[in-house]
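Aim 2, interim progress: modelling of the coenzyme A-bound target.
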Amino acid sequence: MRILFLTHAFNSLTQRLFVVLREQGHTVSVEFDIHDAVAIEAVELFRPDLIIAPFLKRAIPAAIWRRHVCLIVHPGIPGDRGPSSLDWAILNREPHWGVTVLQANAGMDAGDIWASSAFPLRVASKASLYRNEVTQAAVEAVLRAVAHYQRGDFLPQPQQAAELPGQPRPPMRQQDRAIDWQRDDSATVLRKIRSADGFPGVRDTLYGREVYLYDAQPESTLRGAPGTPGGTPIARSGPAICRATVDGAVWIGHLRDPQGEHPFKLPAIHVLGDAVAQLPEISADAETGYREIWYEQRDQVGYVHFPFYNGAMSTAQCERLRGAYVAARARDTRVIVLMGGADFWSNGMHLNLIEAADSAADESWRNINAIDDLAAEIINTTSQLTIAALRGNAGAGGVFLARAADLVWARDAVILNPHYKDMGNLYGSEYWTYLLPRYAGKAQAEAIAQARLPMGVGEAREVGLVDEHFGVSKADFESQLVDRASRLAHAADYAQRLAAKHARRLADEAEKPLSRYRNEELEKMKHNFYGFDPSYHVARYNFVYKVAKSRTPLTLASHRRRAPVIRQRKVS
Ligand code: COA
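Predicted structure of the complex, ligand included:
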């Protein structure tokens, strides 16, 4: 079928549906919901069999839904309505939640139901639930709805009048989740911040400044006086500050100061600056505190965890991770698994910290070199076999950093964005010019870099970016991962594999030294950072400040290209 996505943005859920529906053989084109007239034009150009709205912030024009079946993906259970569904579900401690696929009509989220899918509501941030449970449920429900639609004999179910609260639930306001530090226990504080993370954050006061709080984690031992006037933290750890509650304390990793010089989300200590310099500090690599990097070892397999917020890797984080990796390599193990985080493996350089730096060009340069240093250590590891274990998505430099490992194993639901060009034609480094042709072949490497499209694990495996994929749920992936990594460590051909890898590296190095790939890439990056063309700086600014797109990129809106080039393919 020809399916048109009408969506506010090409976010993670939309990308996953795009990938899954194309894998099923459908032709999918995307139009951002910018203006009614533009949406109507897109429908006329593409002439879709079906319209799907994976992520909308406003109603579909009647001129469209009266003539076409439009399926809206609503992140709520049947009967729930309104724009803050997930926020309310988290705040109200719902045990289960779900996704409902509704047909657009005149009432908001009030149309007939084509399919729904439910899940237990994990204790997690809104963004994490959205990227995982909600996205998985959306895939299941949309696939069922599309199958019903294709069969042609399905009658969507009207919502039961009794189930509907009559009106959509109102958007959640700051006062609905305001923290009362004199009364709220840690669980309540965590729930309030998580209901607003990644957007819009919880408005609060720190050192007398109005800031928005994100990235909350529990603290197990620290205690202090809650509700100090103006909000004074009791400790710091890595990027985070710790605040006392009535029954304990919580870590807050990220803040946004709308009145500040850099009014976007940044590590908390960066926003608070000198004010937190004197706070007692707990190492971010210690067993307590806000843990950013840690190591575990089981059965001759070392696991390096680095759940950096949003998968963004700053210069300092890359340097610390490199240190942790080198230390892991010195241990008596046979396999090292690079675990990334549960939600993201890596999204490359830390664009927000670059934007906030005195010189964005200099900080970009430091950041890319720090990632390259880390990638070089991984590529040059001869003492162990290495695995990048992708539990969550990876983008841009993060994909190639993963490919620096000998093996890339990905969870079945993972989406990769193996391209840099959307960031203002950034050339990219991380030794991608060595790694991509090596694993994908020269021609394929060029096509991947140009396509600028998200990729599911099936396609990623075909083109050599992923070696194995398994397990839809994280629990399933993680248990299979441990099993497979330990089998690899004890495989009969382990020694041959290690020797073959070493020999291959030596041969590759003799043909063209790794340093030459890096220098060539960085030469191009210098032009991106310091050159005449400001595209990278403009694109990064737009990304960090979340400037709304004024048109849909032609890579996604195939109906706006003269000759459609989006390939249709079936991945088994
Ligand atoms: N630096 C800083 N923040 C980043 C980031 C990066 N490299 N990559 C993602 N983020 C943040 C986003 O700003 C967003 O923040 P929020 O918490 O305020 O919502 C969050 O991570 C999720 O990203 P989002 O873009 O909403 O996720 P997505 O799943 O829709 O898209 C990507 C994933 C990877 C395609 C997209 O995030 C992206 O293009 N990132 C930039 C990659 C890049 O160019 N890196 C630099 C070159 S190495």
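Residues 2-163 form a domain with the Rossmann fold fold (CATH 3.40.50.170). The mean pLDDT is 94.
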